[in-house]
Specification:
Strand content: 25-35%
Helix content: 40-55%
Number of strands: 4
Oligomer: single chain
Radius of gyration: 30 Å
Length: 153
């Protein structure tokens, strides 16, 4: 019985270690996504000018692990199930994440100067304008309905 308990504990430890290894491997990949190599592209040289593309990188990750191990001996005695006394098991883990990147700027280096030119994201600008316009229209109609309600009083 003692040997069986030791085997269960060893299996539990192995499962937990493999789950942790998976999490560590995923963390390494996500940390690499935010490295300098991901943010700055390879320099492009044209005559005396060097152009270095730069990106904005956002890495988001979440994970969790769990473990459990069955019934206590006292609950098995209450149920009259002394054969399965103290047995159990379980372990698990999961996670997910996302990496977003977009061009942010271009660094241009010439013999005379170094300058940073931002990259315009017209889709983002358009969505912001639509959102602001919708908010303004919503407030305008709300104010009109409030004026008409006051006139009726």
């Amino acid at each position: 019985m003692a040997e069986e308990t030791n085997n269960q504990e060893r299996n539990k430890m192995m499962i937990d270690e493999s789950t942790l290894q998976v999490i560590q491997d995923n963390m390494k990949e996500f940390l690499h996504a935010g490295s300098v190599d991901a943010v700055y592209g390879k320099p492009i040289k044209q005559a005396d000018t060097v152009i270095i593309p730069a990106a904005e990188v956002l890495s988001v990750m979440g994970f969790g692990i769990g473990s459990g191990y069955g019934r206590s001996p006292s609950s098995a005695e209450k149920d009259g199930d002394e054969e399965n006394e103290g047995e159990g098991g379980g372990s698990g883990g999961g996670g997910g994440g996302r990496i977003l990147s977009r061009p942010a700027a271009v660094v241009i280096a010439t013999p005379d100067e170094v300058r940073v030119e931002p990259v315009m994201d017209f889709t983002k600008i358009g969505l912001a304008a639509l959102t602001a316009g919708g908010f303004v229209l919503g407030m305008f109609f709300r104010m009109l309905s409030a004026k008409s309600a006051l006139k009726e009083m």
